[in-house]
Design a protein that fits this description.
- With 412 residues, this protein is α/β, with parallel strands linked by helices.
- It has 2 domains: 174 residues, Periplasmic binding protein-like II (D-Maltodextrin-Binding Protein, domain 2), CATH 3.40.190; 201 residues, 3-Layer(aba) Sandwich (D-Maltodextrin-Binding Protein, domain 2).
- It is built from 20 helices and 14 strands.
- Helix 13 packs across helix 20.
- The protein is globular, with a radius of gyration of 22 Å.
- It binds beta-D-glucopyranose.
Length: 412
Amino acid sequence: MRKFLLTTAAVFGLTAMAHADEVEVLHWWTSGGEAAALNVLKKNLESQGITWKDMPVAGGGGDAAMTALRARVTAGNPPTAVQALGFDITDWAKQGVVGDLTEVATREGWDKVVPAALQNFSKYDGKWIAAPVNVHSTNWVWINKAALDAAGGKAPTSWDELVAVLDKMKANGLTPVAHGGQAWQEATIFDGVVLSLGADFYKSAFIDLDPKALDSDKMVEAFDRMAKLRSYVDDNFSGRDWNLASAMVIEGKAGMQFMGDWAKGEFLKAGKVPGKDFVCIRFPGTQGAVTFNSDQFMMFKVGDASQKAQLQMASDIESPAFQSAFNVVKGSVPARTDVPNDAFDDCGKKGMADLADASKNNLLFGSMAHGHAAPAAIKNALYDVVTKHFNGEMDSKAAAKALAEAVAAAKG
Ligand code: BGC
């Protein structure tokens, strides 16, 4: 009997140890470029003796991942670490289910190097609850260089110039805009379009949620611009994944894609070089301003055994060397301000400089499409209206009115 107890204890001990050195990671990084970046994180952890248990849930913007997370938390079995965005992190923190990273954050001085715009989401109630991996931004355009050259060679800097280039690409027999018809992708374009009508307008509509900005002539114009862009997509756009739209630009079948800088990860994975094979510009009319989103790893309360691995993972993520290695592959820029830009390509260097300038000039805004402008209920209400309008179910005037109403209803 005694022997049995000892053996059992030993087995349990071993199990506990295995858990202590394991992280189960829920994420939506499933495209080629995303998987390459994820691998940098995975390899880094494995080199510290931490086992990686993968829980991928595909779907840009992370809605499907958040649904999967809800099911796991409800079942009382949350994953150890979860990729999450902005207000979703705050929403989970409010439920009291997230872990506390303050010990490691304090030891490593995160307060001094992580920008305040990210800390707003990484901290709750004075405690660090998430480790930011990167800063992405949504107001980018990815253009096939040969297609641009054939269309006159000048990257557009205003709405009118954009339309002129798109018309030329069409005349040259290309699909001008590579797009995947999914609500979050349409909302991603909408970030850039709304910002192109003025930084103040973006702020009052999306950050302040001012009904007068949401149902305004400017918002009607924003929807008109969406309708115009809709006229440049191919017939098979519906339901297409974002990375397949990137592939159309990479392969020269389409002229450009309006997408966050995770798209750059796809170009790099395909061996393409910025400036030579593709061109990255800010959505015409939004130069100087940045709509950002930051992927953060939120740790769930899973008992003391796993906390060691969680803290190790958080510490690894915030190391300057990792921030450089990971973001070079992912297409994003570092989540800390003290990482050198040497290893980054021209688009990455531009991303870092744009972020610093936008922050200095008060032109840095959370992305509505990617959960950094308003909580999920409001974001989802916007998704619905933007998608319906994009698919011709309502005109621009009706869409602006519906947007104001949907946001008001979601605000409760
Ligand atoms: C995330 C990116 C991701 C993209 C597409 C965004 O919400 O922030 O990391 O690559 O979705 O999946």
